[in-house]
User: Fold this.
Amino acid sequence: MTRFTLDMTSQALKVVNDSTQITYGCMKGDCKNGFGTETYKNGDLYIGNFKNGKRHGEGTYTYSGGNKYVGIFKDGMKHGYGSKTYNKGVWKINGRLYIGPWKFIGTWANDKKNGHGVIYSKDKYLFADNFLNNKFNRSDILYFKDFKITKKNNPTKTGKKTNSTREIKNNIVFGRIRKRNGLSGFWARKGDDLLRSAIKNNIRHSKLLSYNDLTDEPLYDDMFIYLEKKHRRGTFPYYKVKKGENLHSISQTTGVQLESLIIYNKLYYQAEPAVGKIIYLQKRRKYAPKLAK
Assistant:
């Protein structure tokens, strides 16, 4: 015999029979506009933020089969940065089969993989590529083996092959972890996408962008990327603006948070100091410096 009851306090529908009791609906918290726990008829479980009764914001969705998504939702769908772990599955890439378990980390839109993403397979290979509606959007797939970045060797005009992506320019070794201003980080090239660097260095993409006061766009110049939060105060009191520098590049050079530089120097976002002017790194000044024209 099966009977249905409605728990008005938890908004959960309970289906009861002689041998088992299955509960689905809002089990805990606020599943309308807040943080809560909700289960579904198929056995899936969601713990996270809600808006207008839909999954919205950060959350964790665990599938009854064991797959799991951790990331951002919008209007009930995966939308934004997130990772999904699959217990099983097969990917065919360049004629080779990769059998799960495997994991996808990247950007989503309308419940599908869209944008930059990286796939881990069980033999520690990673494939980085652009996605469009769950499908590869280009063929120049980068692969990572044992967490050391390499790129497919493609013949150049001279017949030579490219080797490691690590390069040396002006005595700077790109990609190698080192210390600067007492903080760990690495040099990255103009045009780099930090998603791959985040995966390689085992740090959340959003956190890496936040540490470096960046948005999710290709780097506008060669720069040092910090793997730790930058300092609120500089190790020395002043910095003289050089030609070609802006407030953000000064922040990366000195290791001082961009917000601190703005406050100390009575500036505002997108206001750039003129070349040769002094920037305060440790305390507030009386007057703002002259701005670039």
Observations:
- Residues 247-254 form the longest helix (8 residues).
- The chain is about 10% helix and 40% strand.
